[in-house]
Structures are given as C-alpha cells and as structure tokens.
Amino acid sequence: MSETPPDSLIPYDEIVQEALRAVVGRVLGEVQANGGLPGQHHFYITFKTHAPGVDIPQHLTERFPDEMTIVIQHRFWDLKVRPDAFEVGLSFNQMPAKLVIPFAAVTGFVDPAVNFALQFQAQDDDEPQETATAGNDAPIAEPIEDGSNVVSVDFTRKK
User: Fold this and answer.
1) Among 99, 113, 111, 93, which residue's Cα sits nearest to residue 151?
2) Could you tell me if 89 and 122 are in contact, meaning their C-beta atoms sit under 8 angstroms apart?
3) Domains of the chain, with CATH numbers?
4) How far is residue 106 CA from its own chain's centroid?
5) Which DSSP string corresponds to the chain?
6) What is the pLDDT of residues 61-120, one digit of tens each?
7) Of 29, 143, 159, whose CA–CA distance to 88 is shortest?
8) Average pLDDT of the chain, as a whole number
9) How far is CA 118 from CA 10, 61, 126, in A?
10) End-to-end CA distance of the chain, in Å?
11) Measured at the alpha carbon of residue 108, what is the angle toward residues 158 and 153, in degrees to the nearest 5?
C-alpha cells in the first residue's frame, strides 16, 4: 500500500526560497556597510533580466534577453541594499551603468573565493536556462569543482 503525502497548504518552497534570497541581501548589506569587499571575496550574481522590478540599460536587456550574470569585485560603485532589491553601478565595455535588481529576480549567487553558491528556482519559470556572463571588465573565476558548499533548493511535488 502506497500512501502519498498530502499537498501542503503551507508554501514551504516559497518560504525557503525567500529566506535564502535574504542571505544574498545580508551579504550585500555587509559589503555596503563596510564600504567594500573583505579579502578575496567577490560575487557572481545571476538574475532574470525581465523579472518585475529589474531596471537595467536597454542594451543589456537586448544582449541578455533571459538571464544575466554580473560580477561584484573590483569595479563597482554606489551599492545600495534595500529590503527587496539592490542597486549597483558597474561598467560594461567601458560604459558605466546603474542596475536595480530585486532579490526575487536573483537565480544564483556565487562567492568563488570560498566555494559558496546558492541557486534559486525562477519564480516565473520552472525550466533551467543557460546563463550568459556579463562583460563587465572583471576576471573570470574558476568554477566550483566539488560543489561541497552549493545549496540548491528544488521543490517538486509528487502526486
């Protein structure tokens, strides 16, 4: 006899996703409060370019129509962290740009200096998409090899 668990009336998957996105906000808030990145830390942040609340220059939306990865390392300015989003200035092909990214649009956060990564389910898209890296003058870090610090939350309901 096979019993399937009942569907939850509590949205655990959304609650956990929101809590993990808050980790990104707290880390960026620490960087803002301290006036820069500590040690060798740097971040790759992937987000949906057409998610509600995302505000990036049109040429970046055209170049990255689905997802974009930005690098927060040497050349960034005016980092401002709000409860629901962050703003940052970056350079793309020697052109300065201001980006506003809601935490709900973030699909990935990586700190290669310590092999730490968080991956999020897209809130409006269940299929994984290929991610393009932005050309914002920062060196490309080595990929995480063993994934020992990767947290991937994938909630699927079995019916």
Assistant:
1) 111
2) no
3) 12-152 (2.30.30.220)
4) 4
5) ---PPPPPSS-HHHHHHHHHHHHHHHHHHHHHHHTS--TT--EEEEEETTSTT-B--HHHHHH-SSEEEEEESSSEEEEEE-SSEEEEEEEETTEEEEEEEEGGGEEEEEEGGGTEEEE---SS--S----PBP-SSPPPPPPPSS-TTEEE-------
6) 999 999 999 999 988 999 999 999 999 999 988 889 999 999 999 999 999 999 999 998
7) 29
8) 80
9) 23, 24, 17
10) 15
11) 25
Please give the structure tokens belonging to residue 44: 């790759």
Tokens 């409860």 belong to residue: 83
Q: Are 81 and 114 in contact (CB under 8 A)?
A: no
Under a CB-based contact definition with an 8 Å cutoff, are residues 72 and 88 in contact? yes
Tokens representing 2? 């096979």
Beta-sheet pairing, 43-48 with 76-81: unpaired
Instruction: Name the H helices within 1-158.
Output: 12-34, 58-63
